[in-house]
Design brief:
The complex is a heterodimer of chains A (108) and B (122).
Chain A lengths: L3 E4 L2 E4 L5 E7 L7 E6 L6 E5 L3 E2 L7 E6 L2 E6 L9 E6 L7 E2 L3 E5 L1
Chain B lengths: L2 E5 L2 E3 L5 E8 L6 E8 L5 E7 L6 E3 L7 E6 L4 E6 L8 E10 L9 E2 L3 E5 L2
Parallel strand pairs in B: 2-11
Antiparallel strand pairs in B: 1-3, 3-8, 4-5, 4-9, 5-6, 7-8, 9-10, 9-11
Classes of the chains: A mainly beta (108), B mainly beta (122).
Chain lengths: 108, 122
């Protein structure tokens, strides 16, 4: 089974800061990875698909990069509404999905 | 508007059963694979099960295999999850999520419902 290791598990940052979250796969997954944002009591929302493609309607301050085993989600300038928990999800290892453990982004 | 609405959650005793439903609208439900994903209180996301667009193929996480059954009725635009032999560890919010066209595991999950809560307790 492919394991996804997400880091950091939590992060404090200020409005306007640039933030990077990383997911590492235990083996190569090409670009079969998405990034999701989840706010308390709400469903996850996909931000990025295919590692670097921005989901329609998502602000351009969100970007994704990587291929193979290492992937990053970057928020270029944090806004108050960005404070949430972020998850990566790999869909390369048929027939199962694996989420990262999550990164809780809090206001400093 | 593409929408998924789950229902059927509730409180059930260990060993009991529950059937969740997910009503889809705003897209051609019969063309898409679908998933169930759960989130235990205070925990991360866990994929539970997937089904192809035509119901030919179904898939389960090891933690629920043999106890849960995923199904769909394309004439009713509805996805189901029948949960048997429930244990305390099945307590979670259960989300349905749309996958890619036809088969799962190719495109990830793009649209999610708001979730329904299942509590397993005596």
């Amino acid at each position: 089974d492919i394991q996804m290791t997400q880091s950091p598990s939590s992060l404090s940052a200020s409005v306007g800061a640039r933030v990077t979250i990383t997911c590492r796969a235990s083996q190569g997954i090409r670009n079969d990875l998405g990034w999701y944002q989840q706010k308390p009591g709400k469903a996850p929302k996909r931000l990025i698909y295919a590692a670097s493609s921005l989901q329609s309607g998502v602000p351009s301050r969100f970007s994704g990069s990587g291929s193979g085993t290492e992937f990053t989600l970057t928020i270029s300038s944090l806004q108050p509404e960005d404070f949430a928990t972020y998850y990566c999800l790999q869909h390369n290892s048929y027939p199962m999905y694996t989420f990262g453990q999550g990164t809780k982004l809090e206001i400093k | 508007e593409v929408q998924l609405v789950e229902s059927g959650g509730g409180l059930v005793q260990p060993g009991g059963s529950l059937r969740l439903s997910c009503a889809a609208s705003g897209f051609t439900f019969s063309s898409y694979a679908m998933n169930w994903v759960r989130q235990a209180p205070g925990k991360g996301l866990e994929w539970v099960s997937a089904i192809s667009a035509t119901s030919v193929s179904t898939y389960y996480a090891a933690s629920v295999k043999g106890r849960f059954t995923i199904s769909r009725d394309n004439s009713k635009d509805t996805l189901y999850l029948l949960m048997n032999s429930l244990i305390v560890e099945d307590t979670a919010v259960y989300y349905c999520a749309r996958d890619g066209e036809s088969l799962p595991f190719r495109d990830g999950m793009d649209v999610w419902g708001q979730g329904t809560t299942v509590a397993v307790s005596s």
